[in-house]
Write a structure and sequence with these properties.
Blueprint: H1 3-7, H2 11-40, H3 45-73, H4 75-95, H5 99-108, H6 121-132, H7 138-187, H8 211-228, H9 233-244, H10 248-276, H11 278-295, H12 302-316, H13 319-329, H14 336-362, H15 370-390
Length: 398
């Protein structure tokens, strides 16, 4: 996708890139310090694992409820509500150290321990983008959408390291809450052009003709996210802290570089997809990245571990814009928010279960490398199953 095409985006498209940037900046900042912040409050790693699991489980319920109703009650309205829940969760985390109160806030609110998307935003924004952008431009638009998020996450990770020195970890949590408020205000500017006629009430959670393919994809995406949940950015940062005694500022710089590389790779993915197809691009870029993930804990020094991490991030996100474009192409316009929401919920469920096990592994010093091995192996299984199930199919643009 050229810069000229990016400039030609309609106002709603540009606004959605802005909201993506604001949100992912907050996610990236929080993910670097979240585990460190919680351990500073006196919470053990096993409790943190439970907290992160319930965080993602709660986000699953919120995302499912809002995204499957967005096309019926209004995409803008549901996005504003999601932003309000993000702000509320940040405020609660900043004001209390009571574990039960944190559990409630994590379950009801929107918190991202991974630096990646959670809540209802991604499926609804994808549906809105697909609604205002022609089908032949969607892979490129989603590539820029992915790049925007990766760059924002990278800046957030870098900013977290700097802010933690000035304001300590609580200052980053307060910033997260403030960004949720800003996000809600920006969403009020989304126009009716991003909305779609309400789907038929007989649809199953917003799905009708596309139900079978969406459920198949959702199952595979859940497996991929379950694998990724073992190495969410919060735990990956904590691993670098345990293994190499890396300070928060350096952690921020490391994940800044990693996320920038991930974002740039998305632009390459759109070109590969135009030549080789969406599914092949997803699989054949994801497989080597998972091998590199397994290699990270085998590195004997910090520079080598960071180098392998960077190599992994440079190709690991190429499947994201292609996956988004593929999903939007195989469903009808009135099913897009629901399809994105259901597959997103499946991903969140998968990601939400893994941190509980990862927390148990991190509690054992000799097992802190195991999450990388488990994640990489399961992701390879996902790639092979995805190619077997969808490698020969071609979506019909809509």
């Amino acid at each position: 996708m050229s810069r000229g095409t990016l400039r030609a985006l309609p106002p709603d498209g540009r606004l959605l890139l802005l909201t993506r940037f604001i949100r992912l900046f907050g996610y990236g900042a929080l993910s670097v310090v979240l585990v460190l912040y919680l351990t500073g409050l006196g919470i053990g790693t096993q409790q943190i694992g439970l907290l992160l699991t319930l965080t993602l489980v709660g986000d699953t319920a919120v995302s499912f409820w809002l995204s499957t109703r967005a096309d019926r009650f209004g995409r803008r309205r549901m996005l504003i509500l999601g932003a309000a829940l993000m702000a509320a969760a940040g405020i609660a985390f900043a004001l209390t150290r009571n574990f039960l109160a944190l559990l409630v806030a994590a379950t009801i609110g929107v918190i991202s321990p991974s630096g990646n998307e959670v809540g209802p935003f991604l499926p609804i924004e994808q549906a809105a983008l697909a609604h205002v952008v022609p089908s032949d431009r969607r892979p490129g638009v989603f590539a820029w959408y992915t790049l925007t998020g990766a760059f924002a996450t990278a800046l957030g990770s870098l900013g977290a390291g700097m802010l933690s020195r000035l304001l300590h970890y609580r200052g980053v949590v307060v910033l997260y809450a403030a960004l949720g408020i800003v996000l809600a205000l920006v969403f009020t500017r989304l126009s009716t052009a991003a909305e779609v006629a309400a789907p038929q009430t007989s649809a199953w959670f917003g799905l009708s003709r596309s139900r079978s393919v969406v459920l198949r994809l959702a199952t595979l995406f859940a497996l991929d996210s379950f694998a990724g949940g073992f190495v969410v950015q919060s735990f990956a940062a904590y691993w670098f802290y345990l293994r190499f005694d890396v300070d928060p500022a350096t952690l921020g710089a490391i994940f800044f570089g990693a996320n920038v590389l991930a974002g740039i790779s998305a632009l390459v993915a759109s070109r590969l997809a135009a030549r080789f197809g969406l599914i092949r691009t997803m699989v054949f870029t994801h497989l080597p990245s998972n091998v590199l993930l397994i290699l990270v804990p085998l590195m004997p020094s910090l520079p080598l571990a960071v180098a392998v991490l960077f190599a992994r991030f440079s190709i690991s996100q190429m499947d994201v814009p292609t996956r988004q474009a593929y999903l939007m192409a195989v469903v009808t316009p009135e099913e897009r928010s629901a399809a994105g929401g259901i597959t997103g919920v499946a991903r969140t469920i998968g990601a939400g279960l893994a941190p509980l096990f990862a927390g148990l592994l991190f509690a054992q010093p000799r097992l802190i490398n195991a999450p990388f091995f488990i994640a990489g192996t399961l992701k390879i299984v996902y790639d092979l199953l995805l190619y077997r199930g969808f490698g020969q199919s071609k979506p019909s643009p809509s």
